[in-house]
Amino acid sequence: MAGRSSAPGRSVTSRALAILDAFDATTPRLSLSEIAQRSALPLATAHRLLGELTAWGALHRRSDGRYEIGRKLWDLGLLAPVQLELRQVAAPFLQDLHTTIRDTVHLAVREGLQALYVERISGRESVPIVSQVGSRLPLHATGVGKVLLASAPLDVVEQALRSLSRQTRHTLVDPGRMRRELAEVRRRRYARTSEEMSPGAASLAVPVQVERRGGPLVVAALGIVVPPHRRDLPRLVPVLEMAARGIGRELARTRDFH
Fold it and tell me: How are the residues of the chain apportioned to helix, strand and coil, as percentages rounded to the nearest 5?
């Protein structure tokens, strides 16, 4: 009978939500048994609900049998006022920036220990780009991620320093060195990477912030991806900062961050 299960007192909706809640920033991919354990559901019930959620698009089943959050939830998430407004406000500034520099432009926000990419405009050069709109990448290995991490609460920074995973041979995974680099990002107001997320790609990023009574609030990071042999990245910092300031001003005008 519909709604009946071996988990008494829990509706179908609550069980489905428990499955979705099993995923977080530190465990974005889970097996059937892991999901059943985390959601406190019998294996058979979890398997049935996973099938329904996957068919609808809330989840995606990978080739290795593990599950991850599906595109459908990302598409719905874009309708949330904050994300939708950020993309709409940022769009003309991103387009102007891309027209000026012709490189791949990114806009990202922090989601746990990951950078969530909410917009991207592809560049002219053949640079390996691992991010897509809706993708999540480690904060410590990306330019936009380092900007977001440098402005994150202390407990988030400490958690990130305990989980510095190596993405390439250039990824910075020493907590002491990363702590010093974040301090430098705060001082100079921009972050740089070189082949830390993927070979053949470097990045430059600046914070997008809004002014409020309690002080500036970093709400996003604006970045570009270029070939690692580029030597003119410092020259591009003012260009990124100008676009970021424009986005921040428009956000402050259209939304109450106080």
Answer: 45, 20, 35
